[in-house]
Amino acid sequence: MMSELPDMRASDAERERVAEALREAVAEGRLTMEEFEERLEAAYKARTHGDLEPLVRDLPAPAAAVSLTKPAGATAPVQQDWADRIGGPASGTVAIGVMGGFQRRGAWTVPRSFTAFTFWGGGEIDLREARFEDGEIVIRCIAIMGGMQITVPPDLDVHVGGIGIMGGFDDKASGPGTPGSPRVRVTGFAFWGGVGVERKVTREERRRLREERREQRRLDREERRRPLE
């Protein structure tokens, strides 16, 4: 059902309800993994009801019937407990790749201020399984004739801004996160290079969704066989 007020600002709870509907759709095989990741990213970046509604419009009930006005007695989907991932000593404040590369991924702790530098090289910064020293994080990227790729979870609060000269910063991943999410600001400078930021689910989450989709298909086959039996 279309909202009568498509320009009404979307709430965090409404973004989460749409995200949950998308997870159910990919588990049932109605969306490919690429479609799911694209729509999930758009859901967390949505600012109004009009931004959210097209993401589930072509899905059958109950996904297409996601109400953007929380019904009485309804509960929000379970959200990540960010408090468990904030705090603790940082793993390091600097990463350098000169005619080579660096990686920061897995269960590392992102410092309040992190500086990454590449010269004729590349760097990978993955925050999907990371902890955060504080609720406010600044990542400064300096890429000279090189590049960096930053991967963040779909529900992280991310703001991308930087200066590019014959290079650039990809700010498509900028957008709010779920309640309690750390705020990560990506800034810096790129010369003959680039800094890309993308929202992406973890391999474990991708695997879980695939397993759910296989299980749903198995249940559907059993359901279809019952009338014949």
Please tag this protein with its features.
single chain; 229 residues; alpha/beta; 6-stranded parallel beta sheet; 5-stranded parallel beta sheet; 4 helices; 13 strands; 26% helix; DUF1707_SHOCT-like; DUF1707 domain-containing protein
Helices and strands in order:
Elements: H1 12-27, H2 33-45, H3 49-52, E1 94-98, E2 101-104, E3 109-110, E4 113-119, E5 122-126, E6 131-132, E7 136-144, E8 147-152, E9 157-160, E10 163-165, E11 168-169, E12 183-191, E13 194-199, H4 203-228
Parallel strand pairs: 1-4, 2-5, 3-6, 4-7, 5-8, 7-12, 8-13, 9-12, 10-12, 11-13
Poorly predicted parts: 70-78
Class by SSE composition: alpha/beta
Question: What is the chain-wise order of helices and strands?
Answer: HHHEEEEEEEEEEEEEH
Report the radius of gyration as a whole number of Å. 20 Å
Number of E-state strands: 13
Mean pLDDT: 81
What distance separates the N and C termini? 38 Å
Number of helices: 4
Helix content: 25-40%
Mass-distribution shape: elongated
Portion in strands: 25-35%
Biggest sheet descriptor: 6 strands, parallel
Structure description:
- The protein has 229 residues and is of the alpha/beta class.
- It is 26% helix and 28% strand.
- It contains four helices and 13 strands.
- Helix 1 runs antiparallel to helix 2.
- About 4% of the residues have low confidence.
Summarize the entry for a quick read.
This protein has helices at 12-27, 33-45, 49-52, 203-228, and strands at 94-98, 101-104, 109-110, 113-119, 122-126, 131-132, 136-144, 147-152, 157-160, 163-165, 168-169, 183-191, 194-199. By secondary structure, the chain is of the alpha/beta class.
